[in-house]
Amino acid sequence: MTKIPYGRQNITDDDIHAVVDVLKSDYLTQGPHVPEFEQSFAKYIGAKYAVAVSNGTAALHLCTLALGVKKGDKVITTPITFAASANCVRYADGDVAFADIDPVTYLIDINKVRELLESSPQGTYKGIIPVDFAGRAVDLEAYRKLADEFNLWIIEDACHAPGGYFIDSKGKQQNCGNGLFAELAIFSFHPVKHIACGEGGMITTNDKALYDKLRNLRSHGIQQNPELYQYNHGIWYYEMQELGYNYRLTDFQSALGMSQLKRAYEGINRRTEIATLYENEFAGKPYIIQQTGVVHGHAYHLYIVEFNNRDGLIRHLRDNNIFAQVHYIPVHLMPYYRQFGWKDGDMPISENYYAHCLSLPIYPSLTKEEQLFVIKSIEAFYE
Question: Cα 2 from chain centroid?
């Protein structure tokens, strides 16, 4: 049996042809494929605007800058996420506060967030970064009400959930990143994600002012609209008006993203099929503490199970060339964040989850034969 990773890209001949066409064209970067990808992705998500950037971390960084995070500003996020969800606040010299997760959904617990807010003077916290962890959509309608009550902004980290959604209080489907409840949302196009660009990211918003600011910040803070110049030396002129970054996405990456986007619904359907088979095969097994569950609107970037003797199981699976993975080491326990006073026991639900969680292989090109081999390997370990 060949190596079975927890996730992998799915590159087709159409993807390859799309990239090759760009490589033969006049533009490798800052050409027509970037805005085309942005417009198509915004339509797919249901947002007004989209800004393509070099990766998901750059997207988060630009969001904190666009929202004006500065030294001393406190922002709340989850400890069960990739470190970038918290690091983006530190990039802007802000302070990170963690709120524990819900033990069933693994999403940041809104009740824990409320406790943080109510136990501090009004204005202590500036924003919230909820994460659509593993592909399960956060109820942003509820978070919007909470944010409005305490005058907070929201950045939705939807890296795991393009195509995911939740059902709002009126029974309407709300797509992750559609901009209705969060000021900004971000996505990642890393190879193991739903849409692969090699590296890449996207920011979506319904706010025109934020959109314009993000476009400038991703390209050195340079303004190229003559109507907004402070000076104008001629037709060659451009103007750096603020300190920005080179966080642009290339044309050939955008072409790959466009090609992948055409298969987005197909990919989510396949991921749901894989999750459903896992769910059915593991139902009632004594060695399982909790399964992810099959949830409507879940984008299934990850399929997570909490196992007894997780550490022994992961070694057994790797001996069988199955590279299941742990998502994630709680961010508050990373040495960098411990220096700010975070310690073992601060987030008990997250820490208990971390002791048992395992992400099983799930990606569209995973065959049924490979998945059954994963299942049988797990069963063999516990026999």
Answer: 29
